[in-house]
Amino acid sequence: MKKKIIYIVAGVLVLFLVFRIVSYRKRSKEEVEFAGQRDVPVIRVERRNVIKTIPVLGEVSGNPEVKVFPKVTGKLVKKLKFPGNRVRKNEVLCLIDRDEPAFKFTTAQVFSPISGIVLDYFLDTGAQVSPQTAILKVANFDTVKILLYFSESDFTHIRKGQRVLFTFLDKTFEGFINRVYPSPDEMSKKFKAEIIFKNKNHILKPAMSIDAKVVMDERINALAIPRYSLHRINGKTGVFVIENGVARFKEVEAGLIGDEFVEVRGLREGDEIIGEVFGLKEGLKVKRIKNDK
Predict the structure, then answer these.
(1) What is the mean pLDDT of the chain?
(2) Residue 80 belongs to what domain range?
(3) Is residue 4 situated within a structural domain?
(4) pLDDT tens-place string over residues 10-36
(5) Which of 176, 129, 180, 120 is nearest to 155 (CA)?
(6) Domain check: are 45 and 173 in the same one?
(7) What are the backbone angles phi and psi of residue 116, rounded to the nearest 5°?
(8) Which terminus of the chain faces fewer neighbouring Cβ atoms within 10 Å, N or C?
(9) Mean pLDDT over residues 26-55, rounded?
(10) How confident is the model over 270-276, as a mean pLDDT?
């Protein structure tokens, strides 16, 4: 019985050793092949728009967007317009039961100060109100105001007239800063700038948050390459090209460094350079492959 167990253990050990040897040889072969040559993607130098931006968070509000107050003290007894309803300026929104002996059984009307859409009521029917009590909010959606909030360091680069890009529902929209606030917001302590945006089809709604980009600088139709293909080696800026199956570093001059692309001088339109490759270095044997990016 003991001999049988010994034979089984010995057999398992032999199988394990054989597996390790085969795996090692296979791995060594792959490492040799890898060390001998690398497949590298190649991209063409093209003319592109190079854009440098500052990312910023925006908050949408109606233009205008107002709270509606009653002119009398009393009780909110009836709502005539509801959230989502479109109203005209001076149209009656709700009724107030005047809580005064001289006006018993009479109601006061609350009028909309602007044309727009009812956003929401702050109070339910039956609530006591006064001229200091906001009952509801009305906003105009035809144009909206977008407030952009900046850190102190980013705000130093912001000026009136700058172009702003933002994406919503897979579509990119464009606006321009029309007002820069000189002091920070009291609550967030962030600095603010404002866009007035023509809101076609009411795509944007009040209280929405959007991710925007303020354009700081741009080059139109510039000779450019992707940022990842630009390298900094021994204090020199350049790209890698393929010469006789070998990666060679070629020095270039970088212009505007944008979010995705870099303006370059020292290359020609249509030149091919090596794309994004980990561990790329001078003299590495490479093989050109199609770039899917």
Answers:
(1) 88
(2) 65-139
(3) no
(4) 555 555 564 565 454 545 444 444 456
(5) 180
(6) no
(7) 170, -145
(8) N
(9) 77
(10) 93
